[in-house]
Write a structure and sequence with these properties.
Length: 130
């Protein structure tokens, strides 16, 4: 099941594979947070935002555009994470994007707005092992 405990597996696995010379411990911590950040959209339930809205659950925060935005913002904090801007951008973008991709492997909800704002369609992968 895709949860706040399982989404960080992607950045943790990358850190293990690439080592702390590439993904520093600070960057890894921020990447783990970035991997669960898309679920911040659950606040929409309390605000009565419809699930099917662009700003509802699994909407824009699960998109690749949002992942790029997180990576871009993270670049400005690369020095504090003891890494380069490019490494920070790539790691944070992939960590955030992995959330939507993992959720697209589930069969719950209405799907994932991966291509928002260019396409409002919500996607699931054909193969849904989760």
């Amino acid at each position: 099941m895709a949860t706040i405990f399982t989404h960080p597996i992607i950045p943790i696995s990358a850190a293990i594979g690439l080592g702390t010379q590439v993904i520093t411990m600070r960057l890894l911590l921020v990447a783990c947070i970035a991997s669960v950040l898309p679920d911040i959209d659950v606040i929409g339930f309390k605000l009565n935002i419809p699930y099917s809205s662009d700003f509802g659950h699994r909407g824009f925060t699960h998109s690749l555009a949002f992942a790029l935005l997180v990576g871009f913002i993270g670049m400005f904090f690369a020095l504090g994470m003891h890494t380069t801007r490019l490494t920070c951008f790539i790691v944070l973008t992939l960590a955030t994007a992995s959330h939507g991709l993992i959720d697209a492997c589930t069969s719950g909800g209405l799907g994932i707005a991966l291509l928002w704002p260019f396409d409002n369609h919500r996607y699931f992968f054909d193969w849904r092992p989760i």
